[in-house]
Write a structure and sequence with these properties.
The chain is α+β, with helices and mostly antiparallel strands and 161 residues long. It has helices at 7-11, 61-64, 100-106, 113-116, 120-136, 144-160, and strands at 26-29, 36-40, 68-71, 92-95. The longest helix is centred in the last third of the chain and has 17 residues, at 120-136.
Length: 161
């Protein structure tokens, strides 16, 4: 989809900052010197679900059973200058509120962690099932399933503190 179409999706998530400018590389005509700029290449981005997570590709356990939105982009912090510039090779994590009350106070339309998962054990079992599914499809090794669950346990502990 066109990058500008995602702006509304992220505008509704508190603390999310979506890039106002997206790269639009141009073709160069090398038959002249210096080369002259030609038309723009198409620039597309992945569609996202209601949580702000991408819907395409291989869905990793932390996206299949989310505690946050995970983006493939991040903007520079205003304190270091260049607030509208993309940080290269750095994504962002936009955690869900812990409870419904926190979610409503923040104006976050995404369900809270407590609204999604009745317990830590339930969350970890869902992560395990997502990892087992990926292993069955050949995208994870069987040995990676416990590692996925352990990483998810650390995320749970961090986001529910």
């Amino acid at each position: 989809m066109e990058p500008a179409r995602l702006a509304a999706d992220f505008a509704r998530i508190p603390a999310a900052r979506y890039p106002r400018h997206n790269a639009r590389p141009r073709r160069l005509d090398w038959s002249t010197w210096p080369p002259t700029p030609g038309r723009h290449f198409g620039t597309l981005v992945s569609a996202v679900d209601a949580d702000g997570n991408e819907v395409g590709g291989i869905v990793l356990p932390e996206v299949a059973v989310p505690l946050a939105a995970h983006t493939g982009w991040n903007l520079r912090h205003p304190d270091i200058g260049g607030a509208e510039q993309l940080l290269m090779f750095a994504g962002a994590t936009l955690p869900f509120a812990r409870t419904r009350a926190e979610r409503e106070a923040a104006g976050d339309p995404r369900a809270s962690i407590a609204e999604r998962y009745p317990s830590r054990a339930d969350y970890l079992e869902r992560v395990r099932q997502a990892a087992v599914k990926l292993a069955g499809e050949g995208y994870l090794l069987d040995d990676d399933v416990p590692l996925s669950v352990a990483a998810a346990a650390r995320l749970w502990d961090h986001f529910t503190r």
